[in-house]
Specification:
The structure holds 2 protein chains of 2 kinds.
Chain A: H1 2-15, H2 24-27, E1 37-47, E2 55-61, E3 77-82, H3 85-92, E4 99-101, E5 107-110, H4 112-117, H5 120-128, E6 137-142, H6 146-153, H7 159-173, E7 179-180, H8 181-191, E8 193-203, E9 214-225, E10 228-232, H9 234-245, E11 252-255, E12 262-279, E13 282-300, H10 307-335, H11 342-349, H12 354-364, E14 370-378
Helix pairs in contact in A: 9-10, 11-12
Chain B: H1 27-33, E1 40-46, E2 54-60, H2 66-79, H3 88-99, E3 105-108, H4 111-119, E4 122-126, E5 133-137, H5 166-176, E6 182-189, E7 195-202, H6 208-220, H7 230-236, E8 248-250, H8 253-262, E9 265-269, E10 275-278, H9 296-326, H10 333-343, H11 350-370, H12 373-393, H13 399-412, H14 418-456, E11 458-459, E12 462-463
Antiparallel strand pairs in B: 1-2, 2-4, 3-5, 4-5, 6-7, 7-9, 8-10, 9-10, 11-12
Helix pairs in contact in B: 5-8, 9-13, 9-14, 11-12, 11-13, 11-14
Classes of the chains: A alpha/beta, B alpha+beta.
């Protein structure tokens, strides 16, 4: 009986090639010794300079400390050019004996030129590639190239660490929030536009804490429309976007007035309400009400905050918020890109009007009259 | 040696002689049987002191208790004057009916009976001219005293354990299971050892089919010696082509008693301080006697921990190989970087490293087991700590592999059954080898094979994976992974097919 079973098993094994798995390496996963592997942590995609249609892909690993007596390893930065991202990545495997592993890429940087051309092919590659993950954070480089940032950071511990630090800072200081490739892809497919955090390569100044000549800093948001870069929010527009999306708590706003000391306010809560209005079943306008709550984080040159000073701060807070939201809304209407998901929020506010909103929103958003009311409240000390 | 293996050799027949000693039942025959046996002794005694009426007492020194033979057999034999007035047949009948004080006396009519009685510690009284003899139970009771169980230490429960005497073991069982429905049937196994094997069960609870099956399989054992546990286990197990034990054993009478009361059939063997419980199912090998002594929540947590440890000991080396060699994406970046840093300058591949360390672990464990406990501990310390840390410092193995193998090994020690832990160790090698060929795909294939293999096993008609894979379609009573509070477990296991399923009001 056992002989028969073994014979059947052998026969099945012999028939395996008929299933199409004739080559063992095609059927089984590839083995790589981990110590001969370079774990890439950041990937940058740019248009190749002087060669339209070709992409320049730069990848960078993080630096690592050695275990015991063994020395650590400096960050490895590789760059390759090809017609597609996948071809460039494949070419990097030929650069040395080590296996270049993209499964640990946590940050993907897109240069401005590449972003203007479009990011859909990159996102598609990330979705299909067995190693790259859509959970990687996506950044757009304003006025610069992703490769430059990766090469600059190599002398300062590696780009992955720097970008992770930026991500953590963004969570702590409520600066433009990082987005995963999955979120961006989902927004682009659902909404046709998406908001992406922008980075800027600036010359390092004394006191920046950077070791190299350049440093990387947040630069508001990039707005993608139809898969390509459509505009930048700037700092004021970024604040407005954060106020409308509810990501602003934690931000520090500074105010100075001749009668008051220098004051820093920390936003504690932002509550935004959207109310669509209809006339004869036609979308006629949108009322945006925003209430910003803050507390004093720091007072310089004064012992305490007077009631008059508090009221003045509340007014300034409301004015600042209103200006920021105006900028963000104007940008959205100018670009005809509802990157703030106002339509979805309006439908949530008036669910009985959902069907009308869905049909009229896209056509009417660019010219939709929007009224804005912003109030500020500063907690007593 | 042929190309396809060894050539088959004709096995000569091994007929059993019946009767085994084909001689008349006389003193001369006994002398002939025990020729060249220095421990064979005989003594003549005069009935009631009459020198014309001599009887012969035969026994084996060391097997009988001398005081008993002297006080309860020889003394009344010589002092009872009535016996001198009787004929041999009358004297024999009078002695059998109580003229001698000894508790146990039987008539024997064949040499086989008489000889095996002598070997068992009886003394045989020959009456000249008579065809039958009297056999007196005057065996010595020298045996190891009941001590704490060494392999199943009790935390909260009785502290006795089985000993090598089967009769002592049955008494330990009787003291716990006082029902008159407890049945103990004895069979003799082994042509040369003639070892008593006791089958125990409770009439009215245990499935009679299981009892008959156990009895039949034990009766069919025709071997020279029943000395080691394998002499029994490998002959009565349903499938011996498996590393997994299909018979559960214990050295604790309380656990044995609980099993018998649960509806299982027990086996006790003279000379082995263990008791077997049949049928054996997978969940049985995760249970400890403490489970019912602790609160049900704590017991459940520990049970879950044991199952978790089973998965760790089985799959951790395989998953490590798969993750590090094939699927780096499984590892968080920081962990991968730590492993890379630790593996720098190590000359071996990850697969070789893991297999090497697994083998080294087995060697250290085996060396520790074979040596006296004090030296064994030294070997463990030397092997585990000194050699391990030296190997890491010398960059022969990476610390990560050392940790993985040590964690897998320690997790294996949580298994209450050493046999089961041994099976897991064997499969651990197989899974690691499969993972080294095809990563997680290989490990998954290995896991599939393991499940199929376990599902194919049976023990006395009960599926080995009971109650996970088969419980005759009924809800599990009691605990498989989670132990329910005992008052709510009102039925015995369905798979045991007990006659009376209810176990409490």
């Amino acid at each position: 009986m056992r002989v028969k079973k073994s014979a059947v098993l052998l026969l099945c094994a012999a028939l395996l090639p008929l299933s199409g798995c004739s080559r063992a390496e095609a059927a089984l996963p590839y083995a790589h010794e981990i110590e001969d592997t370079v774990l890439m942590g950041a990937l940058g995609v740019d248009l190749k300079e002087g060669a339209p249609g070709r992409v320049a892909v730069t990848v960078s690993s993080g630096g690592r400390s050695g275990a015991g007596d063994s020395p650590g390893q400096s960050p490895v930065v590789l760059s390759a050019q090809a017609e597609t991202v996948s071809a460039a990545c494949a070419e990097m495997q030929t650069f040395g004996s080590d296996f270049v592993f993209f499964g640990d890429v946590e940050h993907v940087l897109v240069g401005e030129e590449q972003a203007l051309t479009g990011v859909m092919s990159l996102l598609g590659h990330m979705a299909r590639d067995p190693e790259l993950r859509l959970e990687a954070r996506l950044w757009v480089i304003k006025d610069g190239r992703a490769g430059d940032i990766l090469f600059d950071a190599a002398s300062d511990g590696g780009a992955p660490d720097r970008l992770t630090a930026l991500e953590t800072d963004a969570e702590l200081a409520a600066s433009p929030a990082p987005r995963t490739a999955r979120e961006v892809l989902s927004d682009l497919l659902d909404n046709g536009c998406a908001l992406l955090p922008a980075l800027e390569r600036r010359p390092a100044r004394t006191g920046d804490g950077a070791e190299g000549e350049y440093t990387v800093a947040g630069a508001g948001y990039a707005i993608l429309r139809n898969g390509a870069l459509a505009g930048w929010t700037g700092e004021e527009g970024a604040l407005g976007a954060d106020l409308l999306t509810g990501d602003a708590p934690g931000r520090i706003l500074e105010f100075a007035a001749p009668s008051l000391a220098q004051t820093a306010l920390r936003l504690t809560e932002v509550k935004t309400e959207l109310t669509p209005s209809f006339t004869d079943g036609v979308l006629a306008g949108l009322a945006v009400t925003c209430r910003i709550e803050a507390q004093v984080a720091e007072l310089r040159g004064a012992d305490g905050l007077s009631e008059e000073g508090r009221i003045w701060l509340e007014e300034r807070l409301a004015q600042t918020g209103e200006a920021a939201i105006h900028t963000a809304l104007d940008l959205a209407q100018t670009l005809d890109a509802d990157y703030l998901h106002l339509g979805r929020k309006a439908a949530l506010a008036a669910p009985w009007r959902k069907a009308e909103l869905e049909t009229q929103w896209k056509a009417g958003f660019a010219a939709l009259p929007i009224s804005l009311t912003v109030t500020g409240q500063v907690a007593r000390m | 040696m042929g190309f396809f293996g060894r050539k088959k050799v004709e096995v000569p027949p091994h007929p059993r002689r019946e009767p085994r000693i084909d001689l008349p039942l006389t003193v001369e025959s006994v002398r002939q049987v025990f020729a060249d046996c220095v421990d064979f002794s005989e003594r003549e005694a005069a009935l009631g002191g009459d020198p014309d009426k001599l009887v012969t007492l035969c026994y084996i020194s060391g097997m009988v208790k001398m005081e008993r033979a002297s006080d309860y057999v020889l003394r009344p034999l010589a002092q009872d004057t009535v016996l001198s007035g009787c004929g041999m047949a009358q004297a024999m009948e009078r002695i059998r009916k109580g003229a001698l004080y000894n508790l146990g006396v039987e008539k024997r009519a064949t040499m086989d009976e008489a000889v095996f009685d002598m070997i068992g510690g009886n003394c045989i009284l020959f009456f000249p001219g008579e065809k039958e003899v009297l056999s007196f139970n005057v065996g010595t009771e020298e045996k190891r005293s009941i001590s704490d169980p060494e392999n199943e230490p009790p935390l909260k429960g009785p502290r006795d354990s089985f000993v090598e005497s089967v009769r002592t073991n049955t008494s330990l069982l009787r003291r716990r299971v006082r029902t008159p429905d407890l049945r103990i049937r004895e069979l003799l196994v082994g042509r040369q050892t003639v070892t008593p094997v006791d089958i125990v069960w409770i009439e009215g609870i245990t499935n009679p089919e299981t009892v008959r099956a156990v009895e039949r399989r034990v009766a069919e054992i025709d071997i020279d010696a029943l000395i080691a546990t394998g002499n029994l286990e490998e002959y009565i197990a349903d499938d011996i082509h498996t590393a997994f034990p299909t018979l559960a054993y214990t050295e604790r009478p309380d656990r044995f008693s609980a099993g018998v009361v649960e509806g299982r059939v027990g086996l006790l063997i003279d000379g082995l301080p263990l008791g077997w419980l049949l049928p054996g199912t997978l969940s049985q090998f995760f249970k400890t006697p403490q489970d019912k002594s602790q609160g049900w929540m704590a017991a459940s947590a520990l049970m879950v921990l044991r199952y978790l440890c089973m998965l760790i000991t089985l799959f951790l080396p395989a998953v490590y190989i798969a993750a590090v060699t094939f699927h780096l994406e499984m590892l968080p970046t920081e962990l991968a970087l730590s492993i890379i840093a630790a593996k720098q300058d190590v000359p071996f591949t990850t697969v070789f490293e893991v297999l090497l360390m697994l083998v080294a672990f087995e060697i250290i464990q085996e060396a520790g087991l074979r040596l006296p406990s004090s030296i064994g501990q030294t070997v463990s310390i030397l092997g585990g700590l000194v050699v391990g840390s030296a190997a890491v410092e010398a960059r022969i193995v990476s610390p990560a592999v050392l940790i993985v193998v040590a964690v897998a090994g320690i997790a294996g020690y949580t298994m209450p059954s050493q046999d089961f832990a041994g099976a897991l160790r064997i499969w651990r090698f197989g899974l690691a080898a499969l993972a080294s060929l095809a990563g997680m795909f290989g490990a998954a294939i290995g896991a599939l094979l393991l499940i199929c293999h376990l599902a194919s096993l049976e023990s006395f008609g009960v599926a080995y994976l009971t109650p996970f894979a088969a419980n005759d379609g009924e809800q599990v009573e009691g605990h498989a992974v989670i132990r329910q509070p005992l008052p709510s477990v009102k039925l015995r296991e369905t798979a045991l097919k007990t006659q009376n399923r209810r176990n409490q009001r």
